[in-house]
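[Meeting: bench + compute handoff]

Bench side (C.D.) handed over the final construct sequence. Compute side (W.E.) agreed to return the predicted structure before the next meeting so the bench team could plan truncations. Sequence as handed over:
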Amino acid sequence: MEEQQMPICIICSCEKPDGIFILSEFICDSCEDEMVHTDVMDEKYMFFIHQLKTNLILKNA
């Protein structure tokens, strides 16, 4: 029997078992939680925006 590979998060690039798929791309639970709780003035916010643009918008344009 073939073992299924865990999806790789487009934010942290780690294999994780739990998360969400948006436009067939995976975001793990921990990154999703961090994104929704990050203030827009925080430097990390721009990192999340960059990762989403690169992995969701540009790949699916």
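W.E. noted at the follow-up: The longest helix spans residues 43-57. C.D. will use this when planning the next construct.
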